[in-house]
Write a structure and sequence with these properties.
The chain is of the alpha/beta class and about 475 residues long. The chain folds into 3 domains: about 10-100, NAD(P)-binding Rossmann-like Domain (Rossmann fold); about 105-315, Mur-like, catalytic domain (UDP-N-acetylmuramoyl-L-alanine:D-glutamate ligase), CATH 3.40.1190.10; about 325-465, Protein-Tyrosine Phosphatase, Chain A. The chain has helices spanning about 20-30, 50-55, 85-95, 100-105, 125-135, 150-155, 170-175, 195, 200-210, 225-235, 285-300, 305-315, 345-350, 375-380, 390-400, 415-430, 455-465; strands spanning about 10-15, 35-40, 60, 75-80, 100, 115-120, 140-145, 165, 185, 220-225, 240-245, 250-260, 260-265, 275-280, 325-330, 335, 360, 380-385, 405-410, 435-440.
């Protein structure tokens, strides 16, 4: 797409009234486009429509009008979650109308450098960690994208000496063409969201769009332990900085054994090694958080953050809500909220963070997977399991194949999610003894029962505190 000022007096359709849709609508209104904002939600469930209409923006709720997309439409900006099979999106593609997401628009309205962070797992933790490092180093970061505020909103606020630290999903990146971050990071690639993308190839190509417009003046931060990242590096034109928890890298962050200690090392562009911290000094659990730490440190140092600030935040960062979040301890039993684990790989990493076997609460939206990859992890890490949601039968089968004898199921569904989690916790406690851990790590998206993984995590925590 072009700069929003080129759409003055032209028809621009925004699909979706979420916060990102509101933000992008304001951008195009500022530049004089003829705007139509459309959302399938009924008007009485869309208070945002009142706000936009007060600004003079046309809003249509409850249906997709037949003439919503026509020959006069110059651009469609869709909410990332709206599938490409949606009728108005299909109509736009048939007419040759460009369809983008809000992040594509944002880069045209800012002079601030953008840091884009994506991956199948670890995005939120790494993005937040990076933001905290830049903040401690006086780099004036603004956190945006999937967390913080919409990138369009951040881009409008930012001055040239800000850094826009942005978490980006494959859904957002698929709708980009010219997006150009100064620093782009790919954490990992696992087979996920295939119900949206249709194939692993489309998923990977969407992730690659983060790097497609980078030049030799930009930086790509890549995971040296992830084969998909290594393969994608062959197509990348920017300078590459690596992170690894398994082996030494030429330029980047890696772990070094030194006299029984494990040091986090930054190897700069001159090949000089700088010890950042001992891995044991970090607050967060799990090997996967060492990966996230290494990625965040590499990004922050590439952005010019003072090394002392990076070291301090590596030690003190407490993590993010719903990601291996410690809730409380009751009667000697610890409770952890990992609601953000929406795929099996993420749950495997959560299980790996605990030395003792846990009582696992899992289950959610069925995307057609069989969850067989969890079998070995269940054998080694799960003492008992409580399943709920659409995948409960599949997860029960995996648990049985793993030899787990303590298996219980919650049949209550979306009609009463509070009761469902109360039942799950009651069943988990019936298996637990003093010293055990009860872990909510669903391995599935939340949408079969809950509006978001955040809602799922919040209700879990509230229920735990009320036990």
């Amino acid at each position: 797409m072009h700069h929003p000022n080129t759409y003055r007096s032209k028809k621009v359709v925004v699909l979706g009234l979420a916060r990102s849709g509101q933000a992008v609508a304001r951008v195009f209104q500022k530049y004089g486009a003829k705007l139509v904002v459309n959302d399938l939600k009924p008007r009485d469930q869309s208070p945002e429509a009142d706000v936009l209409e007060a600004l003079g923006i046309s809003v249509v709720c409850g249906h997709h009008p037949d003439d919503l997309i026509d020959e006069n439409t110059a651009l469609v900006v869709k909410n990332p979650g709206i599938p490409y099979s949606s009728p108005p999106v299909q109509r736009a593609l048939e007419l040759g109308v460009e369809v983008v997401t809000e992040v594509e628009v944002a880069q045209h309205v800012t002079s601030a450098p953008i840091i884009g962070i994506t991956g199948s797992n670890g995005k939120t933790t790494t993005t937040t960690w990076t933001y905290e490092m830049l903040k401690a180093g006086g780099k004036r970061p603004i956190i945006a994208g999937n967390i913080g505020i919409p990138l369009c909103e951040a881009a409008e606020e930012a001055e040239s000496d800000h850094w826009l630290v942005t978490e980006l999903s494959s859904f957002q990146l698929k709708g980009t063409g010219d997006f150009h971050p100064k620093i782009a990071c790919l954490l990992n690639i696992y087979a996920t969201h295939l119900d949206y993308h249709g194939s692993i190839d489309d998923y990977i190509s969407s992730k690659y769009k983060l790097f497609a417009n980078q030049t030799a003046e930009d930086i790509a931060v890549l995971h040296a332990d992830d084969e998909a990242c290594v393969q994608l590096s062959k197509q990348i034109k920017s300078g590459i900085v690596w992170f690894s928890v398994r082996h030494e890298v030429d330029h980047g962050v890696w772990l070094k054994s030194d006299g029984g200690k494990e040091l986090v090392i930054w190897r700069d562009g001159e090949g000089v090694d700088h010890a950042l911290i001992e891995s044991g000094e970090m607050t967060l659990r799990g090997r996967h958080n060492l990966e996230n730490a290494a990625a965040a440190a590499a990004i922050a140092l590439c952005a010019g953050t003072p090394m002392d600030a990076v070291k301090e935040v590596l030690k003190t960062f407490q993590g993010v809500e719903h990601r291996l979040e410690y809730v409380t301890q009751k009667n000697g039993i610890s409770f952890y909220n990992d609601s953000k684990s929406t795929n099996p790989t993420s749950t495997m990493k959560a299980l790996d963070a605990f030395e003792r076997k846990v009582i696992l609460i899992a289950g959610g939206l069925d995307r057609g997977m069989d969850y067989k990859e969890l079998t070995e992890w269940f054998k080694g890490k799960v003492k008992g399991i409580v399943t709920l949601g659409e995948t409960r039968v599949k997860l029960n089968k995996v648990a049985q194949e793993a030899g787990i004898t303590h298996i219980q199921t919650v049949e209550t569904g979306k009609e009463n999610v509070h009761q469902a989690l109360q039942e799950a916790l009651d069943k988990a406690l019936s298996m637990a003894q003093e010293g055990d851990t009860v872990l909510l790590s669903p391995a599935c998206a939340s949408w079969d029962m809950f509006s978001t993984y955040e809602q799922r995590g919040r209700i879990f925590k509230e229920t735990v505190h009320n036990l």
